[in-house]
Design goal:
By secondary structure, the protein is an alpha+beta fold. It is built from 6 helices and 17 strands.
């Protein structure tokens, strides 16, 4: 009898030790799970981004006319959407096609229908669109579910503004350096228009600045920088009406602000007109100054006086 009691005591002790070890192991696994949160899959750089909380969708259920066939929904903070008869479906990180298939799978898994007929349309998705801003007629986000050429994106926002600089900055969603694309409005070079744009990118069409024409111009003032690609000095002078008769053509200057310091570029317009020197490019906020020639002023005054005297003599002779 004493031996049976000892045997029973040993069995109970072994069972207690085993239970305590199992509990400790379970507690350790639970603590490990809390200390190390599950890894979240991040989209590869350059790959299309998926749906995220706050995005809105419209689902068309062809099998359920009793609910009107159409349901508007918003992705919840947990990344789910609620589907009638199927419950919550995880769509965060999915493309529109993948989200639609996930809804179909959920309905069929619940055995609601044998073959679900569902059409899912994205109405607003931050990561599945491209924001177009800048010198365009209608800046707004463009839905984009996969990479597309820049020409497609710009075609969705209408014509470019009159004061466009023909430079487009593409800021990538993956944090890589932005791309500066120079457009060719003549249509002869389409390389810029073929630049790839990914969902989530921001496309900024740079607006052209102004230049100042001061001094002996026929129409001095402030003018926008326009042109098919760049504006040259000859084009700028033409826009300002050209030099007047008293201008000192050999002493024209371009005044330019470079890193907070004024830089002067001397240009002989007579040589420029004859093609003897290169036609410099005009930049934003350049000041084109054309001084007055004192010699031309004197000569012009003498000429006007002479013409007036001759006219007066002819008038006297007629009497």
């Amino acid at each position: 009898m004493f031996r049976g009691i000892v045997t029973r005591f040993r069995f109970l002790s072994a069972a207690a030790i085993a239970l305590s070890m199992a509990g400790a192991a379970a507690f350790g696994q639970q603590a490990s799970a809390v200390a190390q949160p599950p890894a979240v899959d991040q989209p590869a750089a350059g790959s299309p981004l998926g749906l995220m909380p706050g995005d809105t969708l419209t689902a068309y259920f062809l099998d359920f006319p009793e609910i009107g066939g159409k349901v508007d929904m918003t992705v919840s903070p947990s990344g789910n959407i609620f589907i009638p008869y199927a419950g919550f479906v995880k769509v965060e990180g999915l493309t529109p096609d993948e989200a639609q298939q996930a809804v179909i799978n959920a309905l069929e898994a619940k055995q609601v229908v044998r073959s679900a007929q569902v059409e899912l349309t994205v109405t607003n998705a931050r990561n599945l669109s491209v924001m177009v801003i800048g010198a365009v007629s209608a800046p707004h986000p463009i839905p984009l579910f996969s990479p597309a050429p820049l020409s497609y994106v710009l075609a969705q926002v209408g014509a470019l503004a009159p004061q466009v600089n023909y430079h487009v900055l593409v800021a990538h969603h993956d944090g890589s350096p932005p791309v500066d694309v120079e457009l060719d409005r003549t249509g002869m070079d389409m390389r810029g228009m073929n630049t790839p744009v990914d969902p989530g990118d921001v496309v900024s069409v740079v607006q052209a600045g102004n230049f100042f024409a001061l001094g002996e111009f026929n129409h001095a003032g402030i003018f926008p920088i326009t042109g098919t690609q760049h504006m040259t000095l000859l084009q700028a002078i033409t826009l300002a009406g050209g030099p007047d008769l008293t201008a000192e053509l050999s002493k024209a200057r371009i005044l330019r602000n470079v890193n907070g310091r004024r830089e002067e570029i001397m240009v002989d317009l007579a040589k420029l007109h004859d093609g003897k020197i290169a036609d410099p490019l005009i930049q934003t906020d350049d000041i084109i100054f054309l001084p007055r020639s004192n010699l031309k002023v004197v000569a012009n005054t003498w000429l006007n006086s002479s013409l007036y005297a001759l006219g007066l003599v002819n008038t006297i002779k007629t009497y």
